[in-house]
Inverse folding.
């Protein structure tokens, strides 16, 4: 079984940056946006739609997802199956870092995973998302609360695991307190 | 403000050992059983009773604790006040490691804390508690589930923070996967 680093992260915590830097330092690939591209190619859906279906569809997605037992599989379930297949394949191809997309759950019996969760305080994240993603009409705090809620609900729905619960990870780090480069160093060292 | 390492831990995860070893490596004191002694001395209660009141009283303690708003302070509240005072004093005296007893919560505005949570899978902990504490009539798994439930309830009652929730800590580590000595190394390095 290949050794894989899975990174779950709160929005704005720098989890994606930590994944990229760790992969670079280890000389292994990091799948983040690349995953979206692959899922888009395989499903025929637009990348933007997939991203929103997974995390950020105002209103519609969760309601649709939660109804699947009554109405049969829907788009969200269809995407989940493709995602499941692609992540399993990537882990089989070789060591890598996978950011988000419930990879920790999908690979639980398929790879030797180092399961990481990155989080940070609201202030740190609010400052960071304005710097990285720019200003929006919505306040940064409101955007963060929305994203957190959606990611937790998505994770819970498909994995039945509590997102952010320490017991589900090998290591969790507060990137605001520890620092992004130190997080990279620790994860690299543990791998 | 002094720099303090607070270690919350699941029973059997080796959190206490990690605390002791980290303190030794850093040349600072570690308070664990010493805390019980201090609370006993200050309160006049027996150490055994204090330990059980904090974590492991079959039946009685939690019921008593949860009734305090109706009946005024009880023994558990009285002990909590003493514990609060002693932990605050220790943190004022100098850098140290404090294991358990909600020190992370008590010191949140009083010290510069590195907040650590140590956990491990059931198998690792079951094996370890039999080695360290010996066999009992109760199965190790049952003892662990009991302890986990009580610690979580105690923590929740007095701090209103979720025990084991990654967001409450700077770092959480699975000692079974990471290894006890590696945990010590990482914590020491972060401090």
């Amino acid at each position: 079984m290949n050794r894989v680093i899975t990174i779950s992260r709160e929005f704005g915590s720098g989890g994606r940056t930590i994944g990229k830097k760790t992969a670079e330092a280890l000389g292994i690939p990091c799948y983040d946006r690349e995953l979206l591209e692959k899922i888009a190619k395989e499903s025929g859906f637009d990348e933007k739609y997939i991203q929103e279906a997974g995390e950020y569809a105002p209103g519609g997605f969760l309601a649709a997802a939660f109804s699947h037992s009554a109405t049969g599989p829907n788009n969200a379930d269809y995407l989940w199956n493709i995602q499941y297949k692609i992540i399993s394949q990537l882990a089989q191809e070789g060591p890598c870092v996978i950011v988000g997309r419930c990879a920790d759950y999908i690979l639980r019996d398929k790879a030797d995973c180092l399961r990481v969760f990155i989080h940070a305080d609201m202030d740190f994240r609010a400052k960071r998302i304005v710097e990285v993603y720019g200003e929006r009409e919505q306040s940064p705090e409101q955007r963060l609360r929305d994203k957190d809620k959606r990611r937790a609900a998505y994770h819970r729905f498909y994995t039945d695991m509590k997102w952010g619960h320490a017991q589900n990870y090998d290591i969790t780090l507060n990137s605001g307190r520890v620092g992004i480069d130190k997080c990279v160093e620790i994860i690299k060292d543990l791998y």
